[in-house]
Amino acid sequence: xxxxxxxxxxxxxxxxxxxLFAVLAGILIGALTGDGPETLTGRLxxxxxxxxxxxxxxxxxEFRSLYDYVHQQDMQKDLFPASNYRQTMPxxxxxxxxxxxxxxxxxNYRISFLAHTLLMVLAIGVAAWLLARRVPFLQEYFTLFxxxxxxxxxMLRSAIGGQxxxxxxxxxxxxxxxxxxxxxxxxxxxxxxxxxxxxxGIPLIGLHLLAGRWRSVITGSLVGVALYAxxxxxxxxxxxxxxxxxxxxxxxxxxxIDGPNSVCWLGFFQSILGVQSRFALxxxxxxxxxxxxxxxxxxxxxxxxxxxxxxxxxxxxxxxLMQPHAMYYDMALVLFTFAIQMLNDPTKMKVLxxxxxxxxxxxTARLLGFSPLFxxxxxxxxxxxxxxxxxxxxxxxxxxx
Length: 401
Known about the structure:
401 residues; mainly alpha; disordered C terminus
């Protein structure tokens, strides 16, 4: 049987539905079995205790204690099995993210984790729907596309591990979709909401400023001002200083103990050469600075373009590479790069499939001492650069934005 005869329209329609059903069933079984914070397969929640505890802090009105590590330990002590009762997941997000997790505290922890996981799956589905509206092939086999996105290793680990990368991905896609639909003001709203991860939101607002999308920049900035005002009212005017201090401490600790999971320039060099290596620090920040300069020039050059799809596909890679601390699940953003690659150059399909499969190699990171996904991230960057060069050769920029 040949590949073409196996991948019939019927199989491409129904097999993904069966897989999606199986994944959702597995999520339900995993979340609803076991006792307390334990399941039949291990501890429940992944990184979710950090977010649930932050919501608890808001529910109790103890806003000023959000970045008190002892307070975090107290809020999480019943969210881990008895054997790990001293374990604590840090919460390095801005305080307004804790506000967003407050509704989760209204539910039992186990049900809350299940609801969060299903919400992440829904976010992936909505992002896939937005992308499919621009890519005809994806519309025809939409369920297949959702399953491919969900099972991409960095995305899957985030969705079932209590993280929120699917939300980051959805907001990124929404910014692109609204902008490509000439709804700059709406794109700015999503830009502002991306500030829940400032390391992604702030650079993306800056890129829009360089590209002359001032409506999006204004709206995004206004959303940021509103978030700042609400946070200052509840958490006090010193929250920025406290948050930066705490987040920097978490980043330093994570670099020392979680280097093999890092996929940014700095994290890669530190995982290879050691956290204390001055050369790793110099090389990491030098390449990060070069990445910032390169992506800035790309977006500045696109100042009069009507379609920024290729620029967004490169930004999805650059936003991860330039970070001082980026985990492998942040690489879920490159799914956008893959989608744009399929739209503009379908001949690269086999390469994209191979890169999708190789993402599972992250399971060897501890053994290797570094994340093999870093190499795949660089390959994604090369694909985006090739696409940009091809676009530049094939058609002049449309100057009617």
